Batch of 4 targets.
Target 1
Amino acid sequence: MSTAQPIIIVGGGLSGLVAAHELTKKNIPVIIIDQENEGNLGGQAFWSLGGIFCVDSADQRSNGIKDSRELAWADWLNTAGFDRDREDHWPRQWAKAFVDFAAGKMEPYLKNLGVKFLSVGWAERGSGSASGHGNSVPRFHLTWGVGPEIVRVFEQPVRAAAKKGLVTFRFRHQVDQIIVDSTGRAVGVQGVVLEPSQAERGAPSSRVAIDKFEIRGSAVLIASGGIGGNVEAVKRNWPIDRLGPKVPESFVVGVPAHVDGRMVQIAKDTGANTVNMDRMWHYTEGLANWDPIWPAHGIRVIPGPSSIWLDATGKRLPAFLFPGCDTLSTLRHICATGYDYSWFILDREIISREFSLSGSEQNPDITNKSHIQLLHRLFTRWGTWPVQAFMKHGKDFIVEDDLESLVAGMNRLASERDGPVLSLEAIRHEIQTRDAQQDNKFTKDAQIMLIENTRKYGADKRRVAKPHKILSPAAGPLIAVRMNLLTRKSLGGLETDLDGNVLNTAGESFPGLYAAGEASGFGGGGMHGYSSLEGTFLGGCIFSGYQAGRALAEKYSPLSARL
């Protein structure tokens, strides 16, 4: 067993586990502190779809995809839109380092731990311009086993290290303060011990304190996540200048309530610097979960490109705001209407192929690594079992045989949110206008062009429905889905250098204080800039935990101390 002083990791999510893995490989002891119970180890990553951003991978090449570090970096810069000299200094450096990692070590690092990728998807297809937002090629590497598998490959070696005495877990410990010594170095944390909880993973737990604690070590690494589960914090940081004219009133929530941003604020109160807190990543295709685990639990639809997207007033969204293309531009457009929801109109043919739901619990076939269940996904006429359950029980779905009944149902849902009354004739016109573009092999409609282009990628040909007329009875019945705004990620956070060392408000190193994952905006205080290419959230947790863990190992190893 090592005689080195332990590194204190606040947060048992993915970035914390990765850092602990890197530290214990160097025989450095770790104490992992988390306010939730042991069943929540792995944090938000457990609930994820397990997408990883890799560049020029073996899986891409086997699918005939030509990618490169240079192309990925160009896509990143076009998407991030870095424009703040001071606040974007470290985020830009982190972004470059991440793309280098994604084009080099990411794939072998994960595969050496046992990760296998099922497919390479094309998320965030972009704004329709080669020099604009989005991925030029598919880069979303879907993990076989999704989020729980990514958690497993790091949790197992960390638990093995715990058996050797290198890792100590302190669950149900809520940190309230970072301890700073007389030299200005972070040397520990203190807070309260919460009463035991048997709450299931992700569910709210008691905040009743039964004791106090103080833990000291060599350094403190904050890996506690962002603010996505704290709707009031989301609203408080909402950038009205970019996503106005007002703060949305209603959200569904994409992460558990304990993702509340407390530790970022505690670090800030201790003298740490935060940057880019107005940059956030929220989805526009959220469903209210009919079987919720946490408050206002929302599930994101991961759509194919074919659904007709209407705003709350019934107007079709303009090019290139199509499903799966440009999340934040679509969010900006929807917010500009003054309403906090929009509509998909589709049919059985589209939903059977193009509707996937984000989250490990919504994809039991891939989560359980079941080839038999996966075959059902490929050949079903009504979508996956979870999609069918939402159609049956979800309050955002309307299924009807005719358009008149469909619009009547949409108006019933709109009235619940004081939304505008939709015109049957206006919606009929929007659908018929697009349907008319199906009469020839060529078209002027950008969405139909997108559908045809998407089907040229082999992995998407099975997933994307053949272009057809929405009002064709053969493709029915008709389906309308109310799409809610879904909170998810913080893109800003604690400012750090490339070692994950937090900076103070003077822009200088805060000795002994480190941050990783979403608490650091996935690195530097916001490596994504204003927007994301997807697959970069889990990847960002892995990379920032890797960087911080290795830097701490080098700085605080017994050998370093002797030197």
Target 2
Amino acid sequence: MITNERELKNKYFDLLAEKFNHEEQLASEIISLESILELPKGTEHFVSDLHGEYESFQHVLRNGSGNVRTKVNDIFKDKMSNQEISDFTALIYYPEDKLRMVKSSFETKEPLNRWYETRIDQMIQMVQYSASKYTRSKLRKALPKKFVYIVEELLYKTNELENKTPYYNTLMRQIIETQQADDLIIGLSYTIQRLVVDHLHVVGDIYDRGPEPEKIVETLINYHSVDIQWGNHDAIWIGAYAGSRVCLANILRICARYDNLNIVEDAYGINLRPLLNLAEKYYGDNPAFRPKLRSDSNLSEQEQLQITKIHQAIAMIQFKLEMPIIKRRPSFEMEERLVLEHVDYDNLTYTLHGQTHELTDTCFVTVDPEDPAKLLPEEQEVIDKLLVSVQESEKLKRHMTFLMDKGSLYLPYNGNLLIHGCIPIDEHGNMEGMEIDGTFYAGRPLLDQFEMYMRKAFRNKDITDDLATDLVWYLWTGKYSSLFGKRAMTTFERYFIKDKATHKEEKNPYYSLREDPKVVGKLLEDFDLDPEQGHIINGHTPVKEIDGEDPIKADGKMIVIDGGFSKVYQSTTGIAGYTLLYNSYGMQLVAHQHFNTKENVLRYGADELSTKRLVDKELQRKRIRDTNTGQFIKEEIRNLKELMSHRYTD
């Protein structure tokens, strides 16, 4: 048994010595790691608020927010026309589709083979350029596995004395003759995509509103390097799997609202028939609950009516399920959200803060005015069956486990703070907080508590009414939640009250004070980050560029990158989202225009980018030694040097 720190250190050295059992091996590793520290830092790519918009996300991911085209221009701007550059970049983005188009345009093999030779050579040049700041070992891992030897020969070819000219010519000819050219081009395209972005940050909200969040998660699972900062919409999906019935009701209500129930039923295999049967029994048409149809929707009137009924049924279950949580958790300070207790069911009015409002489009048929929180036996049975179905979905389990493994509530990374929503503060910039299990928390400790309880709820998904499970729901809707960032969620009012003044959700002062460099600097300090060099990178609140709002705030210390990936918000924001690139030279904010179709890119080379805007330019180029990865490498070097001193130095 290890009894003290010295013994633990010796045990660690023993394990290291097994890996490096000769002095030469140890020295070689130290040399390699010290050298890696001097390489330029890799490019970080930041996206947020994807909201199920898989095709738009795919395009941004494939083009590296314009990084691919930038590198193509660097190499070929004097050798290719703009149209040729567009065709080449489209090939890199969508190699399978572009190859089909190109091959169909040739009538004979000879010109096609010349095209293959030219494109493979250009691809090799792109790989060389994109990999210029990586070690050969890291590049090798990014190469298409079946072509590693061939690609390395082409990458590192030297022919000063022309001794190998026949060799290289035969290599290229045989690639084409053996019909491997397509696979090689496809493999090189994905290698280039991987090399232009070293690491991806998803700053929250993969789920809800858009139609294909599950495809986004599958893409992220297979991505080479990624982290996720949970958004409020991600939290309720995690909460539903973790056993929260009220989170489950919320995701079903939102899916019904945005005509996305197929995500639940088809993508995740969750049986909605019991919910439909309940809805058909108790509810009819209701204009307040009709689904928001996408432009490409082909729902029949009957299907729309079914969704309208489901929408009402699950909304009423949600309002009922909220009430016991609010009552058993007084520290949540949410008594005003006992909405069904504020209803006069005889006169159909709603009283809150001393004001009475007329209710319209009501659907209270399953509500007992004497006990409004009480679920009908049928409602209880339906939500219980749905929870079982959710927790038995293997695909959902895999996706939620991935979100937990790769995710966190916030992330300090390379001197910046990544957080989806906000850090709750008051109007003076002081930290706001709440009591959790008898202790008051604010600021970073509050966020740490939220994350700890979220992980606890996920580990114990069979316990459905504990504090941990309730806190996951609180993250969705509570006034001190860093993910919600508002004083109250007015879902009930939006459905049933026409006075839009009641719909307003007051934001936490963070959202106005984040314009102030001093406030942002203090927040960075609270997370042990340099207020002069660091940035806070936010999502969550769409930037209304159409109204002149600037996503770069607080003298460049605050960057908000939710500009409207979600098509629902694009008429409000005026664009289709912001992304951020951070390489060794500095930061660039990229604004994206509405993504039409992949076919538009393939035929016309449209990249859907509008502008790149410099956020910060590094006075001195950042190297790996200046990054989080560099800190780990430095620690490893210290341990290796200590081992060398301990084992091999007299």
Target 3
Amino acid sequence: MNTTINVHLNVTVDDNNSDSVYDVPTLILVLLSILYGTISVLAVLGNSLVIWIIVTSKRMHNVTNYYIANLALADIVIGLFAIPFQFQAALLQRWNLPHFMCAFCPFVQILSVNVSVFTLTAIAIDRHRAILKPLSVRPSKLTAKIVIAGIWLVAMVLATPMAVARRVIMVPEGLIWSPTDIDKLKPFCQAVNLSSRTMLIYSMLLAFLQYLTPLSIIFCVYTRMALKLWGNRAPGNAEDFRDANFM
């Protein structure tokens, strides 16, 4: 069976060998591996516990907790599929994992971040409705489930270009490379199926939809809630002397 290898060479051609771009000290590698591994394990265990509590307790079955469970699920996904693999690739400067994961891991990372941000936005809107219109009809559990499904669908669509773009290619080990050093190539995960201009537009679109738009919505609704609560007085007659005795 013939194997086709894509080699991307953006280096200086020279007959001399060279070291890699940078070498990570073993101690730093071990320390960061422990830290990232701990973060990943805690993220999975902690958020799994949150989901388990919400699922097993009927009184926890409400719209807000559904959103919280969805937020926890997104954190579990990023803890399982993004943190460990993206970390090792960044440190080792090569892709030692199965090639399909080159597209899968960045896709999952963007997917999880999108779900988290959109869910936080949904929670903010739900709290805004509860505080500013407390007597209005509360969204049903079915509505919350539909919103959550929509969040995952939109997040998946926005993450798809990254899966399309990323592929494993062979690149030189060092900055200086000679055509005779064919054995000194390494696998590297890189965006090759989409042009640099397309990736720039995609990054700008993500920044707008993933950061600026949710931030604006959350800022506006929480500002309105703060103003509403700040101007409200507690029920009952205020008595300064009585209230001072409770302080």
Target 4
Amino acid sequence: MDQYHQPAEEEDELTEMVCQETDLKDGQMKEVMVGEKKVLLVCSQGQYSAIGSQCSHYNAPLVKGTLVGQRVRCPFHGACFNVRTGDIEEYPGLDSLPTYKVKVENGMVYVTVNKHALKLTKRVKEMCSRIADIKHTILLIGGGPAALVCAETLRQTCYEGRIIMVTRDALPPFDKPKLSKALHLDRSSILLRSADFYQQYGIEVWTEKEVISVNTVNKAVKMIDGTWLNYDQLLIATGCRLKLKYHFRKSKKDFI
């Protein structure tokens, strides 16, 4: 092959030697640079693999996390990722990590990245959308991460029926911890997914709607406005709310 005419796939890739094969022992990981891209290199169960170096939740450096078997746990909030596939396996966080090719040759470890994906730090798992002719309906009561993860998991496992998420919040699922970290946040900065995302994957989000009763015999729920909604399967994921218990002091000797 002419050395000046490389295959298009090779032209789009960047490969660099990042370390010696003996630099990492089994169960160890380190950050390496491929071009200007930080990559997490992992040696697990006798095999090298490479994934994105930052958690898809709040961008924490995963090299400071914990590696157990084929899973690395984020040091900030405990999100877990598979070091072989990059898939997220435990919340918090919704997105998976990019993966990179690894080759061990003559005692050296090489990592290959796609030049067009150098700026990508996370990815969405492949999902299907809704087929209108399928009438089967799964109703999710609650607008938090649990309901959203359920909806996405259904689409990732090729469920093509109707998905309805009902929440009394004014917004679709959003990142509530951010509310305690800054004032005057822009609405779009706290949403877990955009409106386009829900439309693309056929996930209906009904905001400012409240379910007040469930009829499991007829498989229907009653809304606060008196309307009824039928379902085939139901998930209640409304979370919990702190209930404060007050103790009043009767005398100076009593404790509050």
